[in-house]
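pasting for ref
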Amino acid sequence: MKKNFYCGLAAFTALAFTACSDDSSANAVVQPVAIDSSSSVIEGSSSSVVEETSSSAIVESSSSSFGLSSGDGVSSSSQDNSSSSLLSNPSSSSIAKSSASECRGLIWFGGTDDGARVPVEECAETLWPKNVVADGVWRVMETDSDSSCAYCNKDGIGSGKSSIVWQGGESENGEVPDATLKACGGVCGTAVLDKGTLTFQPFVSIGFTFARDGAGSPVPVDVSNWGGICLSYTSEVPPSLELDLGDSVNKVLDYALPSAVLMKSSVAANIKCIPWSAFEIPSWFKGDDHGWKEDTGAKAAKQLVGVKFKLQANPKDAGGYVFNIRSISAYNSGSGYNAAGPADQ
């Protein structure tokens, strides 16, 4: 597996370099973690998405010792993001802390032996608390048709009927089937969007959480050393990448999660690199952001629960929107990303 990983790393880095050079509260208010002067975030820009999907190019370049296993007694359910006790006190010792050094070498490829799991512990080093286990398992994070959507069934909004049809297999617990990875070399399927009685566009989200506590609940971690996120994908509809801050903060922000809008793409080698600074609160949010609109991405990276690849659009007359997430990595992984820097701002 290691041989396959390093071969994939070299190929992926070379591809990224070539492409980049071509495209040069609840009752208690939850406050973001303060950004110290040592934080190093590459400046970028973004655009928002929720009610009407739009596209904007971001940065374009075209369970180990902490591992999660069935023996850990940790639930694989992704729907419980109840980390309010941690988020209301960002200085809590229970919050996982990653190394202050740059995260390098963290890359997941859908076609390797790693399976449907991003090795998020690669950059945790020794600073992860012993009572926290790494997650990183690809799964359905949210749809408009189930209980995971905290805002879909309130205030007369209604409920959608969207779902995901995995290529090559079926999932019994929301996690991406191994057969899917073998079928397409990535996290692939069809987003069947059905508005139902919703008053906004239907959606589905695929992604992963970083870490869980002993009870299986997602907890926030400091992943600022990633620098941001790079991914290669194809999608028939412009997706967005959202930063999940956990139930408490998500609720305070009325679920206007920090996000970066990507472009639809049919090119398998399409790679987007998004620095933390490019993630912003969507423009449709008009409420009290409690300080989250300033340095949004950098703050979010210091207490991040998960990442969501979100597909939201008007339903098709028949069928759905095909997508494939082929790889994902830390922004700082590989010399090609560092050399390229932000482009297409």
